[in-house]
Amino acid sequence: MKEKSTLVFATNNAHKLSELRQMAGDGLNILSLADIGCDDDIPETGQTLEENSLIKAKWIKERYGYDCFADDTGLEVYSLGGEPGVRSARYASDGHDSAANMALLLKKLEGESDRRARFRTVVTLIEGERTTVFTGEVKGVITCEAAGCGGFGYDPVFKPEGWTKTFAEASAEEKNAISHRGRAVAQLIEYLNKSRFDNKC
Ligand code: IMP
Asked: What is the pTM of this model?
């Protein structure tokens, strides 16, 4: 039987975990922080998505010893100079309150005709001594009001380029196929599959 690789995904976000497991398929055994008994509040003190994803992955590798990966995502709105960016989770308050974050964003964009935005994800993988970084992005616009109840975070106000609906109105499969995290994770999975294949030759 083919041996499965085990990796820890340094997140407590159930939505992300299920998105990721769905994309990874059977070849990878993805453990959550809960699976390894970690309930640390990992500090996200970086000034960029790259710094934060590295901080989270290093935290797990150094304290728990597992090969792992971490992601950090930001919504970058062009007319707001890239806001909320690295502060996406805590835009309105420290409470990770998606409804408040969206309300603040819609308020800041009131009357604004340039509503272009992108989601950007940075994934940092640490295997043994090696660190590898993957990035993915999806462009779109911020709608004038929220629509849909799927997904999480800013999904109800983000309409990808060429779509007539928001991420929150799409199925998980539709979103994963084009999303920022989907694209970054597709690269991660391709890389892992290739390195497993190379190691066997
Ligand atoms: P994180 O650092 O990857 O957890 O993402 C920071 C914040 O960006 C989250 O708290 C969400 O508000 C937002 N976010 C991340 N990924 C998504 C997504 O796929 N859809 C909508 N919002 C997201």
From this structure: 0.90
